[in-house]
Specification:
This protein is mostly helical. It is about 70% helix and about 0% strand. It is globular and about 65 Å long.
Amino acid sequence: MEDEIKSFIHVWVAAITSLFYCYFIAAKIPNGKLRFLSLLPVFYLFILLPFKLSSFHLGAPTFFYLTWLANFKLLLFSFDQPPLSLSTKPTPSLLHFISIASLPIKIKQHPNSNPSQILKTKENPYLSPLILVCKALFFALVIRIYEYKTQLHPIVLLALYCCHTYLGLEIFLAIGASLARAFLGQELEPQFDEPYLSTSLQDFWGRRWNLMVTSILRPTVYNPIRSISTSILGRKWALLPAMLATFLVSGLMHEFIYFYLTGVSPTWEVTWFFVLHGICTAMEVVIKKVSMGRFQLHRAVSGPLTVGFVALTGYWLFFPQLIRNHVDDRAISEYSVLAIFVKNKVLLFN
């Protein structure tokens, strides 16, 4: 455990040092191809760094933060696009640049808003922490239930996997956001918006699930493809290929994450999961456009259908590769290792 923590520190020191280079040197290079070329070593380094970590709970977030989010943000930075653009006013500080580049956060913007309007978004400052604590307790219960995994009905097991994925992601992303909020002192965009309340696939993927990924895929994949498609298909239907391309890229990035977690050759199941959802979401959009909103199920029906579809297709295509390679067991076992490590450290200081 100690060796893994040392490796984790080394990885992040290297990552932050690379971001110093981006801020002080690469930023001075004209944006476009030249800046992109100057950042290629950083892209490559951010792909390799997570492979120095073997634990699930340190390696997987690092891979997600650096290999996916940071690299995509730096790709936009190559062309002086937000969120890392240094041409915006006021110019982001080094701390802002490093935090936004390396963490799954997005600073909330309040265009044309006065302070009283901004305060309205903070009516109950204790609600979110309270909900997060409740979710953390429920997450602990989910981890505990894993001890009886072999005795559980497949439907209960599916619910367990779904809860583990959602709660684990939200809690770990919230930890990163809390660190950033403490350092930056600014309000951040939400990372999730209660995805279990989704009423459609478009609602689930576009407005509720892992919004940091949505916010980075939109400018890097969706907007360029939609812009290109507009001249061919027209504005009304250009969003369809853009949507499909976005889901495909998301699937490929998840495939890369699975390769990192399992160390086995890709099976493309998780890619097909996202391709399937891209097709279904596109069909949903077409139906809405053709029917002009007349065909709309009540949320009491559409909600369970949406969540059920995500869960069942996840059981079919999203989870199998992780289960076959015992990634879930490895993740659960790390909690015991962490508990022993903390206990030993506490005893050492007593």
